[in-house]
Amino acid sequence: MADMGSIDMGLAFKIAGGGFALVFILLTLLYFTVWLTKVITEKITKGKDK
Amino acid sequence: MFELLESGFQFLTWGNALMIVIGLTLIYLAIAKNMEPLLLLPIGFGIMLVNLPMGGLMNYEYQLKAEQPGIVSNISVEIGRFFERDTTVVQTDSGAVASPVHGRVKELNVKQNQKVEPGDVIALIITTEQTDQSKIPTKPVGLLSRFFAYGIMWQILPPLIFLCLGALTDFGPMLANPKTMLLGAAAQFGVYFAFFLAIFFGFDLNEASSIGIIGGAEGPTTIYVTAMLAPHIIGATAVACYSYMALVPLILPPVIKLLTTKKERGIYMKPQLRDVSKLERILFPLVTTIIVVLFVPDSAPLIGCFMVGNLFRESGVVGRLNTTAQTVFIDIMTIFLTLSIGGTMAAENCLQVKTLLILVLGVISFASAAAAGVILAKIMNLFLKEKINPMIGAAGVSAVPMSARVVQVMGQKENKRNFLLMHAMGPNVAGAIGAAIAGGVFIGVLYR
Q: Taking CB atoms and an 8 Å limit, are A27 and B438 in contact across chains?
């Protein structure tokens, strides 16, 4: 186990902040992608029905 | 004559006995209480096996070499007798040669007054310790240590199990209501909260990451990250993760009740989710792989395997591969993985304060993950016309499908008309993706 003084806290904050932000950004991006896919799929389906 | 009959009794310690009791307890919970039996039964048996002395199942061989030239003046350990880490094995005129691992000397290659040169093998040591192979290379020589070294340390078993989980996962509820992905993202707060707490309690960054990722509630992700960053604590983190996944019905309800009112828990959500087309189901794993791996390349083994397994399921053209992944293949991988994880829990490796700390931090990470999901759901309700039941935020703890079932049961208690299971499955499966991303970030920054 390490002494807290020897841990690079700046790096720890970067890992946590950056990691959490990246998880949110990517899942938001996927949210948008899923919505876009749904819209495109519905347009394709409507086009085929016509 | 009796020297030929080396029994385990003479080497059995109180620590071994305690770990055997713990192993038997996990087996009892699996069989009598039906708590995650596919996982806890083999883990419990592995714990029992490795703590029966002289079994050799989890043995590694370490070659202790001389670093400086000298003449052996004293041999400080007996062949076969257990010693702790950093014990002097031989004394030379240029200094002590100590073992960096705990264990027993199997072979002594030097005698008193023998001259040794740098690189000469002084002794062959048998240990059960998981070491950083780049610093202390060891060779697995037991059945379970070979499963562990070539299955887990070579990062083969966890991604393959994730492939099978992908084949078993239905992303339909999440695709039908994609805003629930954000709840899965919020639940990863538990990972980083536990990460900081672990640092506060004296763990280094690699260990803290391995402890934090327990909060992702994904066994393969936890094992994968810990194997790469802190293999010496893999037994504790894996057992913590799988045990708490089984204990989700006990962990989630108090957190949910603390953060929600009765009225909020009774919020009705229409049971009918929109139909998700086959094209959407096929595109999702493809698009997710491309986007996530481009952003977080180190998540490729986990995300890639998860999504290819899901594509097996959704494509509809590889029924045999899908069936195999969902049944026989995952069972085979589970047997190798869980027995070897149990094998890492030898008493000399895990009966330490840090193991207890890991178990405590593990439950904190689960609880804080659930709390974060619930809180985000409540925040989202400030902006949504059609309110979501905030309890489904707790299902971002991706113990699939246990968390979603807990939310379903609690929802029914508050409002008999409420069927929250499929709504809760959204954050439940999104949390698995979030955990893999979080794991990939840890590995990308810290793995050397």
A: no
